[in-house]
Amino acid sequence: MMIGMKKTSMGRQKIDIKKIENQEARRQVCFSKRRTGLFKKASDLSILCGAEISIIVFSPAGKAFSFGHPSVESVLNRYIEAATNRGGVTNGNRGSLLDNGHGLSREYTNLAAMLEEERRKKAALEESDGGRGSGWMDLVNINIEQLGLQELQQLKKKMEDLRNSLLLTESRAPSASAMSTTQYDNM
Amino acid sequence: MMIGMKKTSMGRQKIDIKKIENQEARRQVCFSKRRTGLFKKASDLSILCGAEISIIVFSPAGKAFSFGHPSVESVLNRYIEAATNRGGVTNGNRGSLLDNGHGLSREYTNLAAMLEEERRKKAALEESDGGRGSGWMDLVNINIEQLGLQELQQLKKKMEDLRNSLLLTESRAPSASAMSTTQYDNM
DNA sequence: ACCTATAAATAAAG
DNA sequence: CTTTATTTATAGGT
């Protein structure tokens, strides 16, 4: 830089890592730039080290963006599988459902409680249906309290398989990295 | 820096973004450093902009690491919900199952096909069971081909709800950011 | 794990 | 979107 030349920019300023509030524009710009940077870093990491990565981001406005290598779905599948095979994950997040480190009886309790809760939800749902339902759903209505641990585990696996086939089916030809800017309607 | 002082480091070197091979140690170090950096960037973004973020990373060795704000599970739930409500997502990834942009009849076809496949899987599973099963699973055995679109959609939703309650239940008290280094056994 | 020199990301402004 | 000045991330070495 030449001596005596006036600065034409104040350059990058240091900012505190705390929520940007009451500056809609500044926050939006920051989000866009940093989301781009984050996805770039993820891409670099996956290429350099051959790591599999999935990132999902919701903007403050509620738009969803995602990055995945080889794909979001394949990584989520692998994660869910790993968690399932382990019987749970311990990831440091407070309130994580997939809470590991319990014995079988505890797992049984949790499973039964969860299914019980689901049964309540379903009942409420069908009630709100105003009795218009054809009743076919009752076919899935198992008397959960009667089931043993092994059966609960089988049901769990079955539901996981079903969910996988419905939502998270293995992706095909996932050899390259992919970036995406999926946008749902603002929610 | 003092004049005449010898450089004690060659500083950061420029590297190409291509897979590091045949240098196990270098790749491992790179992975650790960059994973840390990636999670830091994600944390900064979530704090600065109030964004919700979930990151799942599998190391080349197969270890899983995750970051989530407010939690991995809550963001995955929101993502799956958003995809479900839309009837699918369009995320640029090749082979994505949640492929949107089709009419209802096409969705029906896909759903029926998926459930059909699931039926086959289940049959195979029960066969490998050697007939030891108590048969309770048949209660869930619906004649899928007979169902209409609306019923398939209800079944889909039901299965999603069940899966959510089994694996991705809403996390409690997820007000703060969380970093985690979940480790499964190498796979 | 820690250090240093340099590459890369990015805040503010145009 | 582009430029610029500065902060931040990190490759290689110890």
Automatic annotation (TrEMBL), chains A, B:
Biological process according to GO: positive regulation of transcription by RNA polymerase II; regulation of transcription by RNA polymerase II
Stretches assigned to coiled coil: 108-172
Cellular localisation: Nucleus
Name under which the protein is recorded: MADS-box transcription factor
Domain MADS-box: residue ranges: 10-71
UniProt KW Transmembrane helix keyword: no
GO MF, one example: DNA-binding transcription factor activity, RNA polymerase II-specific
Range covered out of full length: 1 to 187 of 226
Main location: nucleus
GO cellular component, one term: nucleus
Keywords, comma-separated and alphabetical: Coiled coil, DNA-binding, Nucleus, Transcription, Transcription regulation
